[in-house]
Structure formats: C-alpha cells, structure tokens
Design brief:
- The complex is a heterodimer of chains A (243) and B (308).
- In chain A, 37% of the residues lie in helices and 27% in strands.
- Chain A contains ten helices and ten strands.
- Chain A is of the alpha/beta class.
- Chain B has one domain.
- In chain B, β3 and β4 form a beta hairpin.
- The two termini of chain B are 36 Å apart.
- The chains are: A alpha/beta (243), B mainly beta (308).
- At the A-B interface, α2, β6 and α3 of A face α2 and α3 of B.
Chain lengths: 243, 308
C-alpha cells in the first residue's frame, strides 16, 4: 500500500514560486490497477516522479506499507519495491538490451528468460536481445523495452508514465494486453499508470483525476470514467491522431 | 626458456586472455627476453639481432591461424624499445594478439615502446588485438609508447582493436596506415585513464587507392585528474571513403582534447569526422538507480557499457 499524505511540490520559476503539486493526499491500496489522468500540465508526471523519488516533495509524507519513505533515495525506493517506467526512455551507448534486463532483474537471468520479457511486450526477442539501447532504436521500441525492464523487476509497485506515448496503434493493443496480464497477476502490489487514453482508463480499477496539481476526483472506474468521456482526460486513439 | 612467475602469468591473462600456453604460433617476451616461442608450418618467428624484436612471417594462403606475442615487464626500471615486423602473405586470414602488461612495484620508471609494422598482402584479412595493462603499487611509472604502422595492399582488410583500461601512467601512441585500392581499415580504440595519467593517441591514415575505406572509432573515459588527447587525421588521395569518430566521457577534473581532422586531395574522397565529449547524463544515472543500482554502481555500468 502506498500513501501520499499532504504532498506539495514547488519549483522556482523566473524567481517566483510555482506550485506543481498542491496538498495531494491519496491512498493506493494493494491489488489495484490505478490510472491517473487529467489535463496536460496538471502535475501527473511530477506525481509519478515524487513516488519514484526522482523529485522530493516540498512538504508532505510518502509511506510504503506504512514505512515513511519521504527521505529515501531513488535506489532505496527501487530496492523496497517501486519500479518506474520513464515517459521518455533513456538511451545508453554500449549497454545492450540483455544488460538492461539483467540489471533490472537484479540477477543474471538467462537469455531465454530475458527473451520472455521482450516477447511479453511484443518484440521479437532474437532481434533485440543483443541490440544496444541507443539511438538506433525507435521511440516505440525503446518504450517497449522500458516496459520489459519493469516486468523483469517484478516489484510490488509499478509506476508507468504515459506508457502509450510514441507507441503505434498496432502496438497499443499489445500494450493493453500487457497491462491486463499484469493486472491479473498482481499479488500484494499495485500498478499506477499515468495516461489519458480511454482504452487504458477502460481497464482501470480506479481513476484519479489530477488538475492544477490537485486531485479533482478519485473513485472507481464506473464512477469516474463516464464524466471524463469526451474531455481531454479520456481521449481515444482517433482523437489523438486528429490532433 | 625462462619460467614465468605468478605476476607475469597474471599479466598474460590481462593482456592476452592467456590462461596457459596458447595454441598456434606465439612468442612471449618477459623482462626484455624471449621466454617462450612456438612456430607453425605457416607462421615463422625469427629474432632480430641483439634482441631488438622479432620478424613474424606468415605464408601466403594461411587461414584461421593465430599469433600471440604478449610482453610482460615485472622488473622495475626496465626500459626497452622493440621492433616487431609482421609480413602477412597474400590471401591470408589470421588473428594477431599483442599486448603489454607492466607490473611496477619499484621506484624506477618501467617503459616498453613496441613498434609494430604490418605488411599485409593482397586480399588478406587480419584481426589485430592489442591490450595494455599496468599494475603494481610502486612509485615508478608504467610507461607504454606503442607505434603501429600498417601497409595494406589491394583489397586487404585490417581490423584493429586497441584497449587500454587500467594502470598505465603514460602513453603516447601513434598509428599510421597506408591503404591501396580496395583496402579496408577498421579501428576500435577503447581507453580509460584515471589518477594523473596521460594518454595521447594519434592516427594518420592515408587512403591512396580507389575504393579504400577507413573507419577509426575511439571511445574513452577520462577520470580523476587524467589527461587525454585524441588526434586522428584521415587523408583521401583517391576516390575513397573515411570516417573517424571520437566519443568521450569526461569525469571529475579530467581534461580531454579531441582533434579530428580530414584532408581530401581528390574530388571523390568522401570523408566524415565526428567528435563528442560530455559527462554522464543525469537521466542515465537516474534510470539505472530506479532499477536498484546506487549512483556509483550506475556510473560503473554506464562506463562498462560505453567501453565494451
């Protein structure tokens, strides 16, 4: 269970204080698939980074299974069981896909097991396992590898920041299937996905709407989703393409 | 025949991946003297007068054979200049592994300057691997100043892998290559310097024949207070293509100077150079930390990958 208690996050912009996250209190119980949506610039990605420890809150407390992790580093949180998939995956010269999966798994996984994670995200493992995680990979390929590293970690808490961004329509269906499988296999953990894609919202157990840094709504999909349809917080793929 | 001691054996592992006596032709030089040698029906190794080096003669048509010529120095204060000449006949396909390890526990500088000259016959293919390694905690410096000259005949291929990762205090190396028509040179250099080490690496590649190609790529990491200079020039004297790239990670208080240069003396010479120096990107560290590595573990992984 992850608890955010009165989390605020400010930055200094043009010598003025700007509040990105305002007093957010949120409890994410175990065995849930939660989607955080809301308009662009509403603070969704920042909230995800605060959970992973990439940013530190200006005030408030973060608890994982009752333990205060507010002051814990990225590494400590990762080791305690928090995974984070970047919106824009990072490239590395020389590091191969297999290396990255092994680092993620925290052990020397066999090539066959590593391939399993790649197949899971719809990549033909044989073609990718020895590729470098560098600029020769497309944005969509990197996104899928990013998701495969989170699968390889197998932690109780996984946070995905806009996993569908940069993924083509065909792969999108595959991505939904990946999340559906993850959702089925959740054990004493939860999945948090930042997205405003209707198809991802459709498989959520619960939906959080974040706007202007505050929680506007939080409830079950059936309660929240109908009110979002047709707004920028729940776009379908065709709307996205026509933008 | 001289028996190798444990330090020398360890260094042989570092520079030539040799755990035991290699197969095929080899010459092991230890503390200024030839310690072991083996020749084969196709590969002959002949000492030059007064221990100034060896001639390696590879018969035309020799395929799938290898030559190992590692050098180890474990005696403090030894300074030597050695000339090794490789005569590779036509239509060969061979692997040559050189390498030098210096272990200096004393207070005097140890220095090995190996000059390697390659004469590669038509249509031959050579893979050359050279590793440098230094160890020992003496105050004496470990100095390696290798020179490599490559003369390539028509349609020959030379693939060079030069690695210097650890423990060499000072290096000033030059590599010179002349390519005839259709010849192809590939260089992959990996370099890491730390402490107050200095490393200078210069390349002069001349593409003299139609269709000659060269690809010279250096990746380096400079840590602590070390200094690196990479100076590569490709000259195109015929319709040819050449590419040189130098990509460096800078850390701590290190300094790096990259001087790639091109000279075209023919309208159909297509030459490209690229150079980049930068520190490890913050988001690379963060990504690996979200996978559970500490910052310094993440740094090591990034460097290992970069220098792989």
């Amino acid at each position: 269970m992850l608890e955010l208690k009165g989390i605020s996050y400010e930055v200094t912009e043009d010598s003025a204080q700007k509040e990105i996250i305002r007093d957010v209190t949120l409890t994410i119980p175990d065995d849930r698939f939660i989607v955080i949506t809301g308009p662009n610039g509403g603070g969704k990605s920042t909230l995800a980074k605060l959970i992973a420890g990439i940013e530190k809150p200006t005030s408030g407390q973060i608890l994982l299974d009752g333990e205060d992790i507010t002051e814990k580093s990225i590494t400590e949180r990762a080791r305690m069981g928090i995974s984070f998939a970047f919106q824009q995956p990072v490239r590395f010269k020389g590091i191969q896909v297999l290396d990255l999966i092994r680092i993620a798994a925290g052990k020397k996984v066999s090539v066959a097991d590593a391939c399993q994670y790649l197949s899971e995200v719809g990549l033909c493992a044989r073609d990718y396992i020895n590729r470098e995680v560098n600029a020769s990979l497309s944005g969509g390929e990197l996104k899928r590898i990013e998701i495969a590293t989170v699968l390889a970690r197998g932690t109780k808490m996984s946070v995905f920041d806009e996993p569908e961004a940069g993924i083509d329509l065909w792969s999108f269906q595959n991505l939904i299937e990946v999340f559906e499988r993850m959702q089925k296999n959740i054990q004493n953990g939860s999945i948090v996905v930042i997205s405003h894609q209707e198809r991802i919202l459709n498989i959520a157990d619960e939906i959080v709407v974040l706007a202007n840094g505050s929680i506007k709504e939080y409830g079950s999909r059936d309660e929240v989703l109908p009110g979002l349809l047709g707004t920028s917080s729940a776009v379908n793929s065709c709307q996205k393409l026509s933008k | 025949m001289i028996e190798l001691d444990e330090i020398q054996k360890r260094m042989l592992m570092e520079v030539a991946d040799l755990h035991k006596v290699p197969e095929g032709a080899f010459n092991i030089r230890a503390n200024g003297k030839s310690a072991m040698r083996n020749t084969t029906a196709n590969i002959d190794i002949i000492s030059k007068p007064e221990g100034a080096g060896i001639d390696i003669k590879i018969k035309p048509g020799t395929k799938n054979e290898s030559v190992h010529i590692p050098v180890v120095l474990s005696q403090s204060g030894l300074k030597e200049v050695v000339y090794n000449d490789f005569f590779v006949g036509e239509d060969c396909d061979v692997v040559i592994v050189a390498g030098c390890g210096i272990d200096n526990c004393g207070s005097q500088d140890s220095e090995h300057d190996g000059i390697h000259r390659f004469y590669i016959g038509k249509n031959s293919r050579v893979k050359y691997v050279e590793k440098h390694y230094g160890s020992g905690d003496g105050t004496g410096k470990r100095i390696l100043n290798p020179g490599t000259e490559v003369y390539m005949e028509e349609n020959s291929t030379m693939e060079m892998e030069m690695v210097q990762i650890k423990g060499v205090d000072s290096t000033d190396r030059y590599t010179k290559a002349e390519l005839a028509a259709g010849a192809n040179l590939i260089v992959r250099e990996r370099l890491m310097t730390h402490g107050s080490q200095t490393a200078i690496s210069s390349y002069r590649v001349e593409l003299n024949g139609e269709g000659a190609t060269a690809d010279v790529v250096s990746r380096s990491v400079a840590r602590d207070d070390s200094y690196q200079k990479f100076d590569a020039r490709i000259t195109g004297n015929a319709p040819c293509s050449g590419h040189t790239e130098c990509d460096s990670i800078i850390m701590d208080q290190a300094k790096i100077l990259a001087v790639p240069s091109l000279e075209a003396n023919n309208i159909d010479a297509a030459l490209i150079h690229e150079a980049a120096i930068g520190k490890i990107a913050g988001d690379q560290l963060i990504k690996l930390m979200t996978l559970g590595l500490t910052e310094s573990e993440a740094e090591e992984q990034i460097i290992n990958g970069f220098l792989k």
